[in-house]
Amino acid sequence: MRAARLAALALLPIAAALAGCVSVTAHDHSAAPRRAATGDFGEATLVNASGARAGRAVLTQGATGLLIRIEAEGLTPGWHGVHIHATGQCAAPFTSAGGHINHGDPKAPHGLLNAGGPDDGDLPNVFADAGGRVNAEVFTTRARIASEGPGQWLWDADGSALVIHANADDHVSQPIGGAGDRLACGVMAAG
């Protein structure tokens, strides 16, 4: 099998010359996925609509994606949608954070469970306990803080923000999975 593949690759320049092509590049399907340098660190101080501190998010770059540790308080008990938003601004009611990061072309629809999605800002829901506290870690391959690697770069010219919503994200419906109002927001910055 390997000998047949090598023989076929050896014939590519001949076939290209006969077809009038200048060059042919063989695609190596065994190449490893794009990786980022690990260890870059960032943080976001979460604030509520009154501007009071509501927690923090710690971002740590992994080789294939971004780990986000979320510690929050003052939420209603239950599930809450969490998304990465495209603009690093958190003026209440946090619409200044813009929409989700979603720079692909064509733009992907919202939803981790959407057959056409997810968009780059989609994250799993987090759960607030009976006291309204969240301690969770989420991971995404669609965002990064390293200068190179997989996912959208969060340290672009206008930054980005992490937003916690009032309701759970159903991960399917548009535009934000029914997640509702923006309760807490944090501008993500290099640590």
Protein described:
With 191 residues, the chain is mainly β. It folds into two domains: 31 residues, no CATH class; 150 residues, Immunoglobulin-like (Sandwich). The protein contains one helix and twelve strands, in the order αββββββββββββ. The strands form three sheets. Strands 1, 2, 3, 5, 7, 10, 11 and 12 form an eight-stranded antiparallel β-sheet that branches. A two-stranded antiparallel ribbon has the order 4-6. A two-stranded parallel ribbon has the order 8-9. The protein is globular. The N terminus is likely disordered.
What would a concise description of this structure say?
This protein is mainly beta. The chain has one helix at 2-19, and strands spanning 41-48, 53-61, 66-72, 78-80, 82-85, 126-128, 134-140, 143-144, 152-153, 161-165, 182-187, 189-190. It folds into two domains: 1-31, no CATH class; 41-190, Sandwich (Immunoglobulin-like).
Give the tags.
disordered N terminus, 191 residues, eight-stranded antiparallel sheet, Immunoglobulin-like
Q: Which value, in Å, is the CA radius of gyration? A: 21 Å
Assign the CATH architecture of the largest domain: Sandwich
CATH topology of the largest domain: Immunoglobulin-like
Query: First CA to last CA: what distance?
Result: 50 Å
User: What is the element string, with H for helices and E for strands?
Assistant: HEEEEEEEEEEEE
Number of strands: 12
Which sheet architecture does the biggest sheet show? 8 strands, antiparallel
CATH class of the largest domain: Mainly Beta
Number of domains: 2
**Percent range of helical residues:** under 10%
Total helices: the number is: 1
Average pLDDT for all residues: 83
Tell me the name of the CATH homologous superfamily of the largest domain.
Answer: Superoxide dismutase, copper/zinc binding domain
Given as residue ranges, the uncertain stretches (5+ residues, pLDDT < 50) are 1-31
Computed structural class: mainly beta
Shape: globular
- Binned strand content: 25-35%
